[in-house]
């Protein structure tokens, strides 16, 4: 594997735990310079895939190449070229911010001459400079994530793996965090990020939907919305919860989800709208209005996952 | 292998230890506490055995014999009774451990040159003490009959006993060095038994194994700070032995330091191996405790002499590093032996350390199962 343009590639990657296939013959192809978002429900295999690609877990069969090296036979070469942030905070809470960074600089063998400048930069973009001497355990959730990112970047990796980095982080910190990721992307780092937030997936150059260890869909977010096969409507009714119960029985409705006071409904065909109007009337539910909409990523994923179940 | 990485791991570990004052205090107090508890509890010297005397002869000779017992530090005469039947009560109530009954014809027999009998009853519920008491009793009576014999005729053979290496026959002198070996076995394994398991439990291991750090770098780096602590513990133990328990230190301190380091390397590696395999702090510390304390205490030759053990047990003792360290410490403390006299123990101690270190390296996987 010496294709310079390829960052990550897997072929028939398989990992099972007992009878359960956590990653089921997965093929991936990710180019350098991408920010690839991996989304999927809990237990869909996101973390397992992350661990396989970062060479800290061995696949049962299949292959994966990361930064030009096999994760099976050249795991240590892979580790030199990547940065990884595990889902659970993986740094030492009883070490200070700067002690953690220097520890990882030592492990990655960062040349001493380059350190002061790099550390200053990393602390700068993560706004951690004032907290240099604070114990990592005493940082807020958002700051912990930024520290994790700083440690994962200390050796200027080619590819960055982030496993649900913004999980449990407040919205403002989340936005800051993504701003940093975009800056990194501009510098040419490839980013492979898993997330449970669909609004974050929208910001990726490409999104993959994983479910039961398989990719259900993969495309850039705009194309994915365009190519979604079903018409989507938003519908306002006076009793949305009861409306769901009624419409669930209607054949041809692919998915219904509720967003505040409105329902998003994926239809097999536009003609189905007449049936919906009829069924709601029959149930005594007043439909206030409806209109055609472009589906959100969430609509698409929920529909696809439901179809796969 | 890159030294800066080993140093980084060691430094990180040291910072963590320093920020956990409770564990650090425990690490230094443990040898002191154990040495105090066991050093004072385990003593094979028996003093002031409570003794009751029943003198039915009431002669000058019988009083002289009773006085002989009373004079020695080993026996304390708590009461004198006048009938044989009264003895039972003292032993039953545990007020006396030894009863000496001098029959009516005692002095008469001696005067006529006939063997004189002496009846001795010892409480055997503590067989160890009883055996030692019996030894003392025969020593006292032996001395007494010698004295009488001299009065009657010059002795043919005079025995002069000299004890080597532990002239005062202080059991403490050979117990304390052995005890240090036992205590250090436990401490060494306990010190490192938490260190790898803790990283798995806290979630820091996943991050660590995603870096290019090598297994040997990781394990060596982790060993270093605990080596330092173990060495200080060893120093504390030796100082206590010499200055508190008055154990003579006849050998070379350098040799002691060198061989202790070798022993620590093996013991700490064992704790590390346990931590790597167990992956849980609680399980690891319990395994470390059981795997070191019992063998070191029972099978190292510290409590029971190895040649007296059944053959299969004797074979097992070869795999217990405390066995070698017990004899090394006794030899350096009491005999002042030099290295060339300790080659067997030293090489097996080294072999143990290397094997355990190698297994620990092999068992540690930079992968999540």
Task: Please describe what this structure looks like.
The complex is a heterodimer of chains A (309) and B (369). With 309 residues, chain A is α/β, with parallel strands linked by helices. Chain A is 35% helix and 29% strand. Chain A has eleven helices and 14 strands. Chain A has helices spanning 46-53, 75-81, 97-107, 115-125, 141-153, 171-186, 198-201, 221-226, 240-248, 272-282, 297-308; strands spanning 6-17, 20-31, 35-39, 61-66, 69-70, 82-85, 159-163, 190-195, 206-211, 214-219, 232-237, 253-259, 262-267, 287-293. Chain A has a six-stranded mixed beta sheet, sandwiched between helices. The longest helix of chain A is centred in the middle third of the chain and has 16 residues, at 171-186. Chain A is elongated and about 75 Å long. In chain A, 44% of the residues are buried. The mean pLDDT of chain A is 91. Chain B is of the alpha/beta class and 369 residues long. Chain B has two domains: 3-42 and 171-363, no CATH class; 49-148, 3-Layer(aba) Sandwich (abc type-2 transporter like fold). In chain B, 65% of the residues lie in helices and 6% in strands. Chain B has helices at residues 3-18, 21-41, 60-71, 86-92, 106-111, 127-152, 171-193, 195-202, 204-208, 215-243, 253-278, 281-298, 311-317, 321-335, 343-363; strands at residues 49-55, 75-81, 98-102, 119-122. Chain B has a four-stranded mixed beta sheet, sandwiched between helices. The longest helix of chain B has 29 residues, at 215-243. Chain B is elongated. The A-B interface holds A 51, 54-58, 75-76, 79-80, 82, 84-86, 88-95, 99, 102-104, 106-109, 148, 151 and B 2, 4-5, 7-8, 11-12, 15-16, 19-20, 202-204, 206-214, 366-368.
């Amino acid at each position: 594997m010496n294709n310079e343009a390829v960052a990550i590639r897997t072929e028939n990657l398989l990992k099972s735990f007992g009878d359960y296939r956590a990653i089921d013959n997965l093929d991936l192809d990710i180019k350098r310079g991408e920010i690839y978002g991996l989304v999927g429900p809990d237990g869909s295999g996101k973390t397992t895939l992350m661990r396989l690609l970062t060479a800290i877990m061995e696949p049962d069969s299949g292959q994966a190449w990361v930064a030009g090296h096999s994760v099976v036979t050249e795991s240590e070469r892979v580790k030199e070229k990547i940065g990884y942030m595990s889902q659970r905070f993986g740094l030492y809470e009883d070490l200070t911010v700067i002690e953690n960074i220097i520890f990882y600089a030592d492990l990655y063998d960062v040349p001493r001459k380059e350190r002061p400048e790099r550390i200053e930069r990393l602390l700068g973009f993560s706004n951690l400079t004032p907290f240099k001497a604070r114990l990592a355990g005493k940082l807020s959730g958002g700051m912990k994530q930024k520290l994790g990112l700083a440690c994962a970047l200390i050796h200027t990796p080619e590819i960055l793996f982030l496993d649900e980095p913004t999980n449990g982080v407040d919205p403002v910190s989340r936005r800051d965090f993504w701003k940093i990721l975009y800056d990194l992307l501009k510098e040419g780092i490839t980013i492979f990020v898993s997330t449970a937030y669909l609004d974050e997936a929208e910001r990726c150059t490409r999104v993959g939907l994983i479910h039961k260890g398989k990719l259900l869909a993969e495309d850039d977010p705009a194309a994915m919305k365009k190519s979604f096969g079903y018409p989507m409507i938003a519908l306002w009714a006076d009793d949305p919860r009861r409306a769901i119960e009624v419409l669930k029985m209607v054949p041809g409705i692919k998915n219904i989800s509720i967003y505040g006071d409105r329902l998003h409904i994926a239809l097999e065909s536009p003609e189905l709208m007449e049936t919906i109007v009829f069924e709601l009337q029959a149930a005594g539910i007043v439909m206030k209005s409806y209109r055609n909409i472009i589906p959100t990523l969430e609509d698409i994923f929920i529909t696809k996952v439901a179809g796969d179940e | 292998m890159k030294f800066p990485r080993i140093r980084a791991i060691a430094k990180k570990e040291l910072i963590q230890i320093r920020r956990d004052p409770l564990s650090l205090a425990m690490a230094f107090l443990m040898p002191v506490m154990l040495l105090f508890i066991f050093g004072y509890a385990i003593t094979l010297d028996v003093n002031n055995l409570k003794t009751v005397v029943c003198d039915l002869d009431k002669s000058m000779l019988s009083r002289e014999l009773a006085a002989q017992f009373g004079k020695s530090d080993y026996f304390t005469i708590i009461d004198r009774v006048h009938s044989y039947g009264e003895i039972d009560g003292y032993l039953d109530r545990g007020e006396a451990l030894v009863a000496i009954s001098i029959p009516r014809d005692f002095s008469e027999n001696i005067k006529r040159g006939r063997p004189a009998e002496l009846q001795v009853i010892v409480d055997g519920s503590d067989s160890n003490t009883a055996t030692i008491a019996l030894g003392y009793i025969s020593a006292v009576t032996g001395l007494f009959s010698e004295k009488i014999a001299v009065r009657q005729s010059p002795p043919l053979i005079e025995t002069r006993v000299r004890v080597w290496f532990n002239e005062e026959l202080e059991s403490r002198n050979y117990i304390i060095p052995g005890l240090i070996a036992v205590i250090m076995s436990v401490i060494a394994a306990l010190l490192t038994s938490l260190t790898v398991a803790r990283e798995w439990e806290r979630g820091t291991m996943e991050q660590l194994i995603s870096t290019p750090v090598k297994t040997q770098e990781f394990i060596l780096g982790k060993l270093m700070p605990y080596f330092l602590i173990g060495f200080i513990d060893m120093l504390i133990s030796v100082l206590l032995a010499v200055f508190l328990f008055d154990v003579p230190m006849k050998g070379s301190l350098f040799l002691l330091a060198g061989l202790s380091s070798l022993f620590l390397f093996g013991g700490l590696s064992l704790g590390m191996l346990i931590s790597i395999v167990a992956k849980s702090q609680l399980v690891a510390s319990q395994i470390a405790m059981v795997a070191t304390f019992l063998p070191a205490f029972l099978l190292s030759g510290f409590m029971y002499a190895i040649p007296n053990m059944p053959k299969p047990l004797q074979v097992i003792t070869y795999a217990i590093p405390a066995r070698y360290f017990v004899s090394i410490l006794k030899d350096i403390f009491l005999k002042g032996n030099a290295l060339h006299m300790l080659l067997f123990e030293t090489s097996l101690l080294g072999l143990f350390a290397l094997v355990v270190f190698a297994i620990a390296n092999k068992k540690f996987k930079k992968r999540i199962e």
